[in-house]
Write a structure and sequence with these properties.
The complex is a heterodimer of chains A (about 300) and B (about 280). With about 300 residues, chain A is mostly helical. Chain A has two domains: about 45-80, no CATH class; about 85-305, MetI-like fold. Chain A is built from 13 helices and no strands. The longest helix of chain A is centred in the C-terminal third of the chain and has 39 residues, at about 210-245. Chain B is of the alpha/beta class and about 280 residues long. Chain B has helices at about 1-5, 55-65, 100-105, 110, 115-130, 145-160, 175-195, 205-210, 240, 245-265, 275-285, and strands at about 15-25, 25-40, 45-50, 70-75, 80, 85-90, 165-170, 195-200, 215-220, 225-230. The interface between A and B is medium-sized, with 25 and 28 residues.
Chain lengths: ~300, ~280
């Protein structure tokens, strides 16, 4: 796995005029330099390059430590109030020890999960409908096209007004964030299916429902998986922002609360949590996607050879 | 495999005054015009013609994917109204589902009929054996060569016991060697199952090697120019390809095709520039 999939989500994402926020998340997702665990066939890095990479990481942390300790002021940017790594590590330790951590992480994971799953179901179902029926496309696409350019974050005030519970409003915002990548990639995937495959299936006796389940859905699956992994990125992005404004508990809430309480080391701890969980869930989605589309990996591997 | 041996399941095709037209904007293109023919059950018929003569369109209508604009097209007395498993269609490039393993591709038709997994896999294995791919059931289509993919395609269609096998230049994308192997394999399978075969091709040798009858089509509009019987007995081997009768039929077919070209060429017969005419004719064919 790894290479072909990663390349696909970064470059060939069928994402016409996507909001720039989404695009950012997508490319972050793919270009992160840290080799993911078990990036498989590419083999291990030679020792020399591995050392250079580790050295680069150490240098970065060392600079951060130095700049914070000496309260470096660089004109445009200042490190005066930035906690040093030496303060962050104990703060991280403290949080991991405290009973709050489960609440924060649990609430965030629950919200991401709820938003992501509902976006997946809605996006795939709507995408199949729009992709297969001109009638559904005419009926559903205009309002969706109107809502598409609005980033999930812009929904925050309206979502608070729309939903009686702040919990639901946050889930809704995550849902909106993931919906459009999933929806657009599903539509694209359905449209890209070879019409001869559909003719062949009909000739072999497939009815409408069977055609959908046996041909259209698996045919669009690789594209849907791309949409899901982009969607997972936008999910976290939207969630953290929503939690900062509307939350009780949650990693985003924790981060913003730490700012308000002036415990600056905890801000960085929150950021680290967001990064780790965001990346882990993206990797998870990609792994699951690869499991669901084994033929696609074989195809991609053949093309690379 | 006993069930496949059954030759008594019909397969008579009757086309009566059949026309098929394409409407693209204001243009009205007559792909097939007033064509009529009868094909007996179990007969192997090749439709031979230059590209664009409407032979694939005719096959699409037999498959039920294209609606005729006039006339009637019937299988065993019942008008063809849409695609159905009784009329299996094989394309030039394979249409195997890339997400299904070979065995599941072959078993697809049975799955659509609601046959239980164990039984449909057993029968798919029989069919794979028939086309010589018993060991490849667990591969994905992309892992097979072009010739193998076409074999799987044929097996997938045959599992439905079609009364008619419709083939649209199924071997034209293969290299010469593989094509020869596939032609022999097809005849061998057909000997076993004796289903009606309508085989579209632009290759005269292929048509004469395979079929009982060759329907030669003309283009613009697509009509049947001649109905040639190939009465040589089977099984046919390489000797048939160099026999006098084969050469005679081939020459006759070539004459028909040349006639066609002459008719197509826009320059009048006594042109001052014969070289130019030749060039045009080449481009059109």
């Amino acid at each position: 796995m790894g290479e072909p999939q990663t390349g696909a989500s970064a470059e060939s994402v069928p994402f016409p005029a996507a909001p720039s926020l989404d695009a950012n998340v997508a490319s972050n997702d793919a270009e992160i330099g840290v080799p993911e665990p078990g990036s498989g066939r590419r083999g291990r890095l030679p020792l020399g390059r591995l050392l250079v990479r580790l050295g680069s990481l150490a240098l970065f942390v060392a600079f951060w430590q130095f700049a914070s300790e000496h309260r470096l002021h660089l004109g445009l940017v200042t490190f005066q109030n930035i906690p040093a790594p030496s303060e962050v590590v104990p703060a991280l330790w403290d949080l991991l020890q405290s009973p709050k951590v489960g609440n924060h992480v649990g609430s965030s994971l629950y919200r991401v999960f709820a938003g992501f799953v509902s976006a997946t179901v809605t996006g795939v179902v709507l995408g199949l409908l729009i992709g297969r029926s001109r009638w559904a496309a005419d009926l559903l696409q205009p309002p969706l096209e109107m809502l598409r350019p609005i980033p999930g974050v812009a929904w925050i005030p309206l979502a608070i007004l729309m939903f009686p519970s702040s919990e639901l409003s946050m889930i809704y915002i995550t849902f909106v964030g993931a919906l459009f990548p999933v929806l657009l990639n599903t539509i694209h995937g359905v449209g890209a299916i070879d019409p001869r495959l559909i003719s062949a299936a009909k000739s072999l006796g497939a009815g409408r429902l069977r055609l959908l389940l046996e041909v259209i859905l698996p045919g669009a699956a690789p594209s849907i998986v791309t949409g899901l992994s982009i969607g997972m990125g936008t999910c976290w992005f939207c969630l953290v922002t929503a939690e900062m404004i509307a939350g009780q508990y949650g990693i985003g809430y924790y981060t913003w609360e730490s700012y308000n309480l002036q415990s600056y080391a905890d801000i960085v701890v929150g950021m680290l949590f967001i990064g780790v969980f965001g990346m882990a869930s993206s990797v998870l989605v990609r792994k699951l996607g690869n499991l669901l589309t084994p033929w696609y990996r074989i195809e991609a591997r053949r093309e690379h050879e | 495999m006993n069930e496949i041996h059954d030759g008594s399941h019909g397969g008579r095709i009757e086309a009566c005054d059949l026309s098929i037209a394409w409407h693209t904007g204001k243009e009205n293109f007559r792909a097939v015009e007033r064509v009529g023919f009868d094909i007996a059950p179990g007969e192997f018929v090749c439709v031979l013609g230059p590209s664009g003569c409407g032979k694939s369109t005719l096959l699409g209508a037999l498959a039920g994917h294209i609606r005729p604009s006039a006339g009637n097209l019937a299988l065993d007395g019942k008008t063809i109204l849409g695609p159905a498993p009784e009329r299996g269609l094989v394309f030039q490039h394979h249409t195997l589902f890339p997400w299904k393993k070979v065995i599941d591709n072959v078993a697809f038709g049975l799955k659509m009929k609601g046959v239980a997994r164990a039984e449909r896999e057993a029968r798919a294995r029989e069919l794979l054996e028939l086309v010589g791919l018993a060991e490849f059931g667990d591969k994905y289509p992309v892992q097979l060569s072009g010739g193998m993919q076409q074999r799987v395609e044929i097996a997938r269609v045959l599992i439905n016991h079609p009364r008619v096998l419709l083939m649209d230049e199924p071997f034209s994308a293969l290299d010469a060697q593989t094509r020869w192997v596939m032609q022999q394999l097809l005849l061998q399978i057909w000997t076993n199952i004796r289903t009606t075969v309508v085989f579209v091709t632009h290759d005269i040798d292929e048509a004469l090697f395979l079929s009982d009858r060759v329907l030669v089509m003309t283009r613009c509009p697509g009509r049947i120019r001649e109905d040639i019987a190939v009465r040589t007995e089977r099984p046919r081997g390489e000797a048939w390809l160099t026999s006098d009768e084969f050469i005679r039929l081939k020459r006759h077919c070539l004459d028909l095709v040349h006639d066609e070209r002459r008719r197509d060429a826009p320059t009048p017969e006594r042109s001052a520039q014969p070289a130019m005419t030749l060039q045009l004719a080449g481009a059109i064919s």
